[in-house]
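Re: your question from the hallway

Yes, I did run it. Sequences:
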Amino acid sequence: MNTIIEYLRDRLNTVIKTCYGILALVLAYSLYVDKSHAHTWVEQNVPFFWSLFGFGAAAIIIGVAYWYGHSGIMARKDFYDEESKSCCGCSGAKHESSCEQA
Amino acid sequence: MTSSFIHPALILLIGALILPFIRGPLRKPYLFLVPLLAMAAVVSNTALSGVHGVYQFMDWQLEFGRVDRLSTIFALIMGLMAIIGTLYGLHVDNAKEHIAAWFYVAGSLGTIYSGDYLSLFLFWEMMAFASTFLIWFRRDKGSLAAGYRYLIIHTIGGIILLAGIMLRYQAVGDIAFDLMDVAHPELYTWLIMIGFGLNAAIVPLHSWLPDAYSEASFNGSVFMCAFTTKTAVYTLARGFAGFDILVVLGVIMALYGVIYAVMENDIRKLLAWSIVSQVGYMVAGVGIGTELAINGASAHAVAHILYKGLLFMGTGSVLYMTGKSKFTELGGLYKKMPATMFFTIIGCLSISAAPFFAAFVSKSMIISAGFESHLNWAAWLLMFGATGTFMYNGLKLPYFLFFGKNNCSEETWEKAGDPTWNMQMAMTAGAALCIIVGSAPGLLYSLLPYPVNYHPYDGYHIAETLQILGFAALAFFFLKKYLVPEDKICLDMDWFYRRGGRLFLWIAKHPIQWFDTAWGEAYRVVGLGPLMTISRFWSWFDWHGIDGVVDGIARCVRAIGGRVRVLQSGQIQYTIYFTATFAAVVLISYILFQLA
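Structure:
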């Protein structure tokens, strides 16, 4: 398996172009397929609807997660350790050992 | 037990109690045999229907074996997962870990087969307590603290559930566990729903899940990812089908889990967030409540247990081999762990609902049920969440773990490699089942609670899925620099109860401790003096009053004894003399009395 992966990595541009080709085929297939089973109007009448939905949803999720994470939700990994140290009356590195003993 | 019902939980419990005595070469065959027997019991129970194992306890009728299509499908997947999970941890020499896991599974199976709230509560709590040990058995500082947090949260959930059960008993007069009147919810309806919902990780009662599952032992999390939340989904499907609020909560779970999974740096915590998201689909399905939706929730529970178990086995293998679980300490592992990568990618495709993989045949049932019930907003948001699932689980996880930048230290890289044969066997079984369920859903559909009239493999569904997956992958390709994991933690609802714990400690250390000190001083000054005076009085009274009376009686008895002692010289002639004299006096007195 490693050989196959190395082979593909060595030809990354070809792999990317092949993927674009596959996406084009998917788009073409979406035009051809019977949409009578679709649940809503937009699915039936907007061409490439699910392609747009997939790209848009993924982009929105990435954007929202990035914004949300960097708005203060992502904290340093010792966030709770520091909180518990300050809680038990210790602060700073010099009290670390006494905190651990406690 | 009545009839031929065999309770699989009983097999696991007895098996767990005997396990410490099975040592040496017999240990591994025994470990494999017990869950196999439990699964055989579940399979044999599928031939039954109705209520079995009925016992009268005081005024209540306990039903340990309610067998119907809903309990059967959940029992089957739990039994199957017990086998796979035990196989995965077969090389673990610590019997206590297997005992905890089997008690945990027994709790789940017991809950599923319970027909009344009392036996359900018993098994429910067994599940909570046994699973805590699966966290503690990782034996590090983080897992110890996470285990305590897990235990406290589940104890609170258990108390809420018990309060609901008691209120319901007071109102209704029985303990039968059946579908609630969700159109007219009472206080007890909400309490029982919250009790079940906490185990299903309903937002905002979910924080215990990513906290605990990421800290559990490598094989403990394989069990944990399957049983607690899906048993809760079963109880919700049994008791709360059609409860509208569950649709809203399910959709929130599906989206909330996605955002946190996208931000997450720890591979197992990412999967734990993914559970929150995926269980959201099941909860929403239960809330929709139609036959298609309940079928979808049940099918997705089965598929989810298979692919999530596989994913936790894959990431557990990485943890087991390297000792690391963060993207920022891993990467590029395809060279060292090709088999693990292969199985993990099958799990990733399965959770992403790719055609021919497990979730393709289950997730769409719930979304279709949403559209068919005219809950379009819910169905659209669940589709949105499904795109996110592919984003973090189908792309981010395998890319940054196996292909992306290599962040491994020299030591980590040295340790990396595919795991033991039994772990690979378990992953093979999980991967095969994911593909079988996804490619030939007929068997799964035949086990669902209601008749199935759903065909996932039509051209439109395949085109829809390929478009979503393909173009979400394109977005990932362009925007992946915004997804590069950072060595940080994500603050969540647990911040509140951790702050709550901190506040509790502050209150204990400051106002309560101050009050305790002040009270002690006041007691010493105000209370102790009078108390000593009273004590001295009672001491005097005791000495001169009570002791005087008691001692006086004693002295009196001693004086009489001294006099009488003269009569008891021990010589027989004196005794005869006194006795005869006394008898003569009595006799003469009697004669004189008669003559008079």
